[in-house]
């Protein structure tokens, strides 16, 4: 032991000898959201092996919870280890082979991200573009399907970078009429806006645990329709029973369609906390009401109520929003003369409240305020309203 110690050249880090201190903050950004005490407590249960029968039972229960939240009876419904990005990759890697054509609807950063992933796996990526703040009509989609004849259409339900909620009605039927699968990103919307996977004929749907579901980051629910699971032509050597490498999937970890089961070695704590959101009173259907507590589309203009005219000095509207507004994340223009970094830093330092700036096409242009799951209360709205009023009075403002 003494000899081994004498070989050490890196000293023990002194900072790890101090107790960990984590401040209490109200997370009203685009994610993660605050985790209820009961779900946090679930992470402290005794550790079990990932193949123990109790853990397998929990995995089955999570599957049932995903089927409920997604409103689907799909057999291939599971949660992959990782963030929404991991679910995005799992969906694209399982549906596309090198040379396949995918049509990506882009009106914010998440369409851009999906297009980049698809290019890296060798797909032929066609882009259907809308300016930030706009959404796609069925006519837009059909025009793209006719022009490009894709095998897969990717579209974002809740575009958190711009605050747009994409209408999905009729898109599944439209895609299937043109021989195309519908892949939907619902990371920022699931549980905060109605979505009916089976009724809307969505072939692949995924989300993330750390948004409206109020679970810790690290688990991403995903579901594949039967059409998606067996979509390759019967008898093809790249059919659903072929090895992952034969189907062009370049990663073993996300090969859901080939292995048809959960990834081995999934973190047990993540499994347990993922299960707990299914018992919340505001899960899925009932949580749609919570998302509208503060920002009711029938009473408010498309701009954020906290910066509507007369509410706060330096009022500003939303970025290009017209009809389809995402209820879980509201985007508002940075008031003229202010720095978004100053405002977000002030709220964090002085009020213990997190909001965020823009992302992708909205960087430097907007503030993004999230109201998701248990955070969707009038008290929280009043708290962030007061913090913003304080920030606009005390943060520096340029007159130029």
UniProtKB/TrEMBL annotation:
GO MF term set: alanine-glyoxylate transaminase activity; L-serine-pyruvate transaminase activity
Binding-site residues, substrate: 368
InterPro entries: Aminotrans_V_dom (IPR000192), Aminotrans_V_PyrdxlP_BS (IPR020578), PyrdxlP-dep_Trfase (IPR015424), PyrdxlP-dep_Trfase_major (IPR015421), PyrdxlP-dep_Trfase_small (IPR015422), SP_NH2Trfase/AEP_transaminase (IPR024169)
The gene coding this protein: Agxt
Record protein name field: Alanine--glyoxylate aminotransferase
Pfam families linked: Aminotran_5
Domain Aminotransferase class V: 49-223
Catalytic reaction list: glyoxylate + L-alanine = glycine + pyruvate; L-serine + pyruvate = 3-hydroxypyruvate + L-alanine
BP GO terms, sorted: glycine biosynthetic process, by transamination of glyoxylate
GO cellular component, one term: peroxisome
EC numbers, comma separated: 2.6.1.44, 2.6.1.51
Top-level taxonomic group: Eukaryota
Organism of this sequence: Setophaga kirtlandii (Kirtland's warbler)
Keyword field: Aminotransferase, Pyridoxal phosphate, Transferase
Sites bearing N6-(pyridoxal phosphate)lysine, chain numbering: 211
SUPFAM superfamilies hit by this protein: PLP-dependent transferases (SSF53383)
Family: Belongs to the class-V pyridoxal-phosphate-dependent aminotransferase family.
TM segment ranges: none
Cofactor(s) the record lists: pyridoxal 5'-phosphate
């Amino acid at each position: 032991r003494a000899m081994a110690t004498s070989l050490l050249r890196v000293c023990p880090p002194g900072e790890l000898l101090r107790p960990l201190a984590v401040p209490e903050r109200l997370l009203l950004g685009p994610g993660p959201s605050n985790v209820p005490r009961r779900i946090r407590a679930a992470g402290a249960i005794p550790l079990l092996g990932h193949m123990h029968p109790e853990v397998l039972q929990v995995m089955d229960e999570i599957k049932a919870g995903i089927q409920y939240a997604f409103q689907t009876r799909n057999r291939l419904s599971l949660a992959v280890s990782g963030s929404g990005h991991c679910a995005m990759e799992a969906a694209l890697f399982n549906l596309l082979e090198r040379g396949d054509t995918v049509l990506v609807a882009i009106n914010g950063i998440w369409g851009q991200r999906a297009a980049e992933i698809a290019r890296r796996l060798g797909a032929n990526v066609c882009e259907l573009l809308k300016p930030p703040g706009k959404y796609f009509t069925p006519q837009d989609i059909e025009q793209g399907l006719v022009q490009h004849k894709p095998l897969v259409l990717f579209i974002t339900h809740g575009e958190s970078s711009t605050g747009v909620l994409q209408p999905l009605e009729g898109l599944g039927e439209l895609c299937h009429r043109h021989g195309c699968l519908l892949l939907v990103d619902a990371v920022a919307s699931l549980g905060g806006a109605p979505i009916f996977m089976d009724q809307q004929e969505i072939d692949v749907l995924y989300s993330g645990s750390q948004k409206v579901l109020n679970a810790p980051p690290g688990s991403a629910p995903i579901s594949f329709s039967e059409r998606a699971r067996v979509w390759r032509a019967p008898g093809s050597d790249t059919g659903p029973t072929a090895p992952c490498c034969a189907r062009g999937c370049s990663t073993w970890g996300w090969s859901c369609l080939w292995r048809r089961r959960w990834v081995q070695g999934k973190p047990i704590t993540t499994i347990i906390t993922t299960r707990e959101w299914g018992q919340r009173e505001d899960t899925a259907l009932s949580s749609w009401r919570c998302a509208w507590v503060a920002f009711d589309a029938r009473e408010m203009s498309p701009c954020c109520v906290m910066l509507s005219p007369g509410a706060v000095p330096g009022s500003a509207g939303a970025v290009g929003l017209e009809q389809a507004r995402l209820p879980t994340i509201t985007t508002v223009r940075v008031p003229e003369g202010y720095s978004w970094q100053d405002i977000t830093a002030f709220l964090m330092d002085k009020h213990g409240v997190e909001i965020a700036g823009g992302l992708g096409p909205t960087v430097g242009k907007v503030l993004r305020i999230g109201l998701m799951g248990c955070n969707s209360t009038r008290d929280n709205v009043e708290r962030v309203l007061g913090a913003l009023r304080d920030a606009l009075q005390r943060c520096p403002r340029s007159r130029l």
